[in-house]
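User: hey, got a sec? need MFS transporter folded
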Amino acid sequence: MKLQNESIDIVDDTESKKDHLFLTENSVLRYLTFSALYLAQGIPEGITYFAIPAWLAMNNKTPVEIASFVAVIGIPWSFKVLIAPLMDRFTILSMGRKRPWVIFGQLGLIVSFLAIGLVHDPLNNLNGLMIAGFFISFFGAFQDVATDGMVIDVVPINEQARANGLMWGTKIIGTSLSVVIGTSLINILGFTIAISSLSIAVAFIILVPIFFRERPGEKIMPWMAGEASDDSKKAQLGSWKEIFKSLFKVIILPSTIIMGIATVISGTMYGLIDTLLPIFTIQELGWTNTSFSQVYSITTLVGGFFGMFAGGALVDFFGDKKMILIYLIITTLLIGGFALLPDFWKNDTFVFGFILLYYLFYTFLCIAMFAASMKLCWQVVAATQFTLFMALSNMGRAVGSGLVGTFKEMMSWDYVLIITAISPLLTIVFIKFINFKKQRETINQFKI
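Assistant: Yep! Here you go:
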């Protein structure tokens, strides 16, 4: 009898240990998993959005050519709103609601990232570079939609701000490291070897969604043992009619509409600054692509580090809305102040300070905006609704990126920067009208 009891205890201990490998059961595992997946997004983004544009600027490509490249690779991020309903409607439920899509997106990201390194004569083949960059962004967006949907599914609301801080901070760190390492490798070893080397790190991260499951009892792979959990079955909608009916109910709420407008405007600012900085510093201030990548890496690393450990905590302590408004005010003053002080642009320390402060508050703002957007979502269509917010932001980002070349041909850099500072100022106006409490109360009354 004693031996039987001991064997039961051993089985119980084994099951208890296994429970720690499920995202719904282990907060540390949730943070590590989502941080790793965001790191996988950050590495190719650093190359496509910053290292390649800086490299093109260093090789005397025009602002219009560079802005066109950035705008094209930004387009798939606006398509996320078309991808998300597919994920809410179809999945291998026995593997989890979003995990199969995360694995698929990560696999596509690996292949497409390898492919851009194979573009022949990339400096004189911008069309080829754009096409390869487009597919990197497409699969990056795919993985991003699935990851965000899984976050809303398995992370409790009271942990979402902290999770967003870690995720976004990790992505920023991955982006910044890939910029400085990628730029050095491109200059030393050439474009193809540099990209191939960095793609190895992205490839390893696919092991994370493969080995860690969403809920107890689910399959690791389709051919293995396991079944869909009751929670997944309840949350999964069975028809397109249910999905779009549910989505319509939540997107017509006032706070959803206001947040959508705010994300478009703030996204325009992100696109303008991210595209403007490598062109401005290299072609106007005389920096090299190496010096830009080093400054970008240092400043975004600082932003990512503080974002990981302070971004979510500040939102938890002071509230989403208050912190978003503070970050927007500071960002407006930063960009506007820099625009009005052109005599200081030749001072590298002054420019470095501006970039450092911008990316610090940019990181904090993104964390707060993401956490706030998640709070406005209804779980049954969370992937689609949250993706709608992010697609609108990326739409604004693509527009902002494309406008840099046009603005620069029409006016000087100080006026381009002043126009950029209007974006966060307008965002403030809309954020003030969002009512999170009323939105949650309304959503809680919804029936599937």
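Quick note: The longest helix spans residues 157-189. Let me know if you need anything else on MFS transporter.
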